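Chapter review. Work through the record for Phosphoribosylformylglycinamidine synthase subunit PurQ before attempting the end-of-chapter questions.
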Amino acid sequence: MTSRIGVVTFPGTLDDRDALRAARLAGAEPVPLWHRDKDLHQVDAVVLAGGFSYGDYLRAGAISRFSPVMETVIEQAKAGLPVLGICNGFQILTEAHLLPGAMLQNDHLHFVCREQRLRVENAATAWTADFAQGQEISIPLKNMDGRYVADERTLDELEAEGRVAFRYLDGNPNGSLRDIAGITNAAGNVVGLMPHPEHAVEPLIGTGGTDGLGFFTSILKKLVSA
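Structure tokens for Phosphoribosylformylglycinamidine synthase subunit PurQ:
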């Protein structure tokens, strides 16, 4: 039976179709999910895609966090449902307290859009198992509110527990503390990152790289082996 990966669309989401396509290319059945619908339609994993949900009013992800679909996502994520938050999705995960810390405006106060090199710091999560520890990958980055911050105690805990999933290489693009590009929860089923793996899944589209496909093949292998 084909694993089902749901992708949530909020008002202002931009990259939901890209994420659905990435799931299909990896071999999953992509399932569109609507922000007003609490029903996750029996998906095996959820992606919160990038964009500017609700126009980033108040704070990026602050309103989306209270959408009906998030009630179910939060409940099931705590019970082990794999959830990947990409860019705005990462912001929503921090607002929902599924991941610690917060996202602030880039330190240089400009929108950044570029191909970004990352180092995989944790290859044991549901979304990173197809990578090798320490592997360097390159995927697109595009954000205005991408600066990850947390208090020193939280940062130390993330480091000590191996919960920094990705770190920026070749310069910090947004001022994120300790060059953190993505983190995971303690269980490894919830991962958030600012760069966009769904834009690097086939050689003829985007940057021409396929390093992002590993996120989606990782979760498929996790689901099959569960």
